[in-house]
Amino acid sequence: MALLRHVENYFGKIFPKHWNVQEDLADKMCRNIKANIFQIMSEKKATLDSATLKRALKKTLIFERELMNSFGTTPADGSLTVSVE
Hints:
66% helix
């Protein structure tokens, strides 16, 4: 989130709002994170335990909620309404 705040503070007055620079950057970040997580999980699937996966999922959900709050959006499919206990 710090990177997105930096982009807004530094570039917010340079790029027109309708270019959606922050949203595009967030989208690219999420796609890269997804690819990295997939690669890590593929390489380490034999050694991953459920507690680690649960902790990672919680952090991912928190990050997604922060993004939604930043952009004032809500998931159309209700994907973030599930609680990980």
